[in-house]
Design a protein that fits this description.
This protein is mostly helical and 119 residues long. The chain has 6 helices and 3 strands, in the order H-E-H-H-E-E-H-H-H. The mean pLDDT is 93.
Length: 119
């Protein structure tokens, strides 16, 4: 669903909200200045656009997210697998794990995830 597509700067902005919500819009402006180097006007412009898209809500100067981080991550990861690996999860995992070693705990967790997905 396109609703979950966020550009890099938008994702960084929404991540601040996810980490701090509910957050006062004045505090959000301060954090965006510190972390993103944004001016107040930029913060409010992006906030307004994301509210219009149904991603954030700004009620009485308190900002909250209307969608969860996990929903955006799921959308983005599916888009990458579809676009870059022709929708093949094995191709994605092969590329991702190519020069990386998994810990025993990571391997066990991946096995558990796969077993749950097969059920």
């Amino acid at each position: 669903m396109e609703k979950y597509k966020l550009f890099d700067a938008e994702y960084k902005f929404v991540s601040i909200v996810w980490d701090k919500e509910p957050i006062n819009s004045t505090e959000l402006v301060r954090l965006c200045a510190d972390r993103l180097g944004w001016k107040k006007s930029t913060t409010y412009t992006v906030l307004k656009k994301l509210c219009e898209r149904g991603i954030l809500q700004n009620k009485e100067a308190v900002v909250t997210a209307l969608i969860k981080r996990e929903e955006v991550q799921k959308y983005e990861s599916n888009a990458v697998v579809k676009k870059t690996f022709e929708g093949s999860l094995p191709k994605f995992l092969t590329a991702f794990l190519d020069d990386r070693k998994l810990s025993e705990q990571e391997a066990e967790e991946l096995k558990r995830i796969i077993e749950e997905a097969v059920k």
